[in-house]
Specification:
The chain is of the alpha+beta class and 285 residues long. Helices cover 39% and strands 19% of the residues.
């Protein structure tokens, strides 16, 4: 790699860091394959093609960054987070089994038959997807990374895995069961339930729950006061990281080959999804 190309790649790497973009986002913006983006910006490719560098230059252009401030993420938010509809029939329930959608309460939730796996959001009942081994392994692996980080630093926050009820709005119309969450205020948790919003929530996107995980929950979590929400989508090999602490929603999209920073810990903890996937493949066969 000659000096001019090295300087160009270094400039692109600096812009990536400044704009806080993941490799997956750059790949979608530029049309360059994800593996190629990683190799070029990682300095692995000795002689990247002119067309590749040109596409990356456009995707990471300073003018685009200054004028639109991550227009790609804003567009994605609009696609993923339409206005939250309340009431109506919805698509919840097996075969439309829940006749009173929009009017159910926490009392109805607790009156469900034993072994029922459902959530209650704004008076609507949603069936939870099946607990598949590979999803459970992924969740428990992320939980381990978070718990290890908390314990080694002597932090007081609590990492909790499902099943654990979260009365998100402290009202009578919502009770969710996140796959994994972290709460900094331990007083919110008692009697096998949490009253109020966690600080961090992770959900694994299952084909049966895609609409809820990607359309309904991000906006609901934001409204309730959750600071950070991860939607891990194994089918697309991506992690959608929503940060709700600013006025505008910040959405970053990472590949499951990357280390993903946990922002509620100021990015000091990075979850190694590539290593988790490798371990999962050995575990699940």
């Amino acid at each position: 790699m000659d000096d001019s190309v090295k300087k160009q790649v270094e400039s692109l790497r600096t812009r990536k860091k400044r704009q806080k973009l993941s490799y997956a986002v750059i790949a979608e913006r530029s049309g360059v394959p994800l593996s190629t983006v990683q190799k070029v910006l990682g300095g692995i490719t000795e002689n990247p093609r002119f067309e590749t560098l040109k596409a990356l230059e456009q995707a990471l252009s300073e003018a685009q960054y200054e004028e639109t401030t991550s227009s790609y993420e804003i567009q994605k938010v609009r696609e993923v987070l339409p206005p939250l509809s309340r009431g109506g029939k919805g698509s919840a329930g097996k075969n439309g089994a829940y006749a009173r959608q929009g009017a159910y309460t926490v009392d109805d939730y607790y009156a469900m038959p034993p072994r029922s796996r459902v959530e209650l959001i704004d008076g609507m009942i949603y069936d939870l997807p099946p607990q598949e081994p590979d999803y459970q392994f992924l969740i428990s692996s992320v939980y381990y990374e978070i718990r290890k980080y908390i314990e080694t630093r002597g932090l007081s926050c609590l990492p909790i895995m499902a099943p654990f009820d979260v009365r998100l709005d402290c009202d009578n119309a919502t009770m969710v069961v996140p796959d994994l969450f972290v709460v900094f205020d331990r007083s919110k948790a008692f009697n096998r339930s949490l009253v109020g919003a966690p600080d961090f929530v992770l959900e694994v996107v299952h084909p049966a729950s895609r609409e809820v995980d990607l359309l309904i929950k991000p906006r609901k979590y934001r409204e309730a006061g959750v600071r950070e929400y991860w939607a891990v989508n194994p089918a697309r090999e991506q992690v959608y990281v929503y940060t709700f602490e600013e006025e505008e929603i910040d959405l970053q999209i990472y590949s499951l080959d990357e280390e993903v920073p946990v922002r509620v810990f100021a990015g000091d903890l990075r979850v190694p999804f590539a290593a988790i996937r490798e371990a999962a493949s050995a575990f699940t066969g």
